[in-house]
Specification:
Elements (H helix, E strand, L loop, with lengths): L2 H13 L5 E4 L6 H8 L7 E7 L4 E7 L6 H8 L7 E2 L2 H8 L17 E4 L7 E5 L5 E6 H10 L3 E3 L4
Parallel strand pairs: 3-5, 5-8
Antiparallel strand pairs: 1-7, 2-3, 2-4, 6-7
Length: 160
């Protein structure tokens, strides 16, 4: 559970020669706990939210101090505003291989489309969990942008 995602993200950073600082810490579930434990501002964190319309899946990455704008996501995906919802804990595990609170912004068990909120790029450095609640990374936000470019993520305004 999650260790394969940790290893996959390590390999991804190595393959693309992206310099990161790996962090191990007490288990965190909320963005607030993660910021406090890591010693960073809440807005520097990236949280990954798994959404579905009942048929299709999507991961939306937003700054940890923001919420996903469900209406904007539904409109961009062409999903009914009445059908879009957050995935359950069981669905998150099934689709990403991770527990809620450990889901990384990319590198999931299944290939899931990524939406990335532009607000993420307002920071100099970013931090996020990489598959386990006890493992995260810190890296330059410019490198986070490179990652999302490599992965062809959809970048737009997806937070409120």
């Amino acid at each position: 559970m999650g260790i394969a995602e940790v290893e996959g993200i390590h390999a991804f950073f190595s393959q693309y020669r992206i310099s990161v600082t790996y962090l191990e810490h007490e288990a965190v579930v909320t963005s607030e706990d993660a910021a406090r434990t890591r010693g960073f501002a809440l807005k520097q964190g990236i949280k990954a939210i798994v959404l579905t319309n009942g048929n299709d899946w999507l991961v939306v990455d937003v700054s940890a101090d923001k919420k996903v704008n469900m209406k904007a996501v539904a409109e961009k995906k062409g999903w009914s505003k009445g059908k879009i919802r957050m995935a359950t804990a069981e669905e998150v595990m099934e689709k990403t291989g991770c527990e809620i609170g450990a889901v990384p912004p990319f590198g999931h068990k299944e290939s899931i489309p990524l939406f990335v909120d532009v607000g993420i790029f307002e920071n100099t450095e970013s931090t996020f969990n990489i598959g386990l609640r006890t493992h995260s990374v810190k890296l330059k936000t410019a490198d986070v942008k490179k990652v999302f470019d490599i992965l062809h993520a959809e970048i737009g305004s997806f937070s409120s």
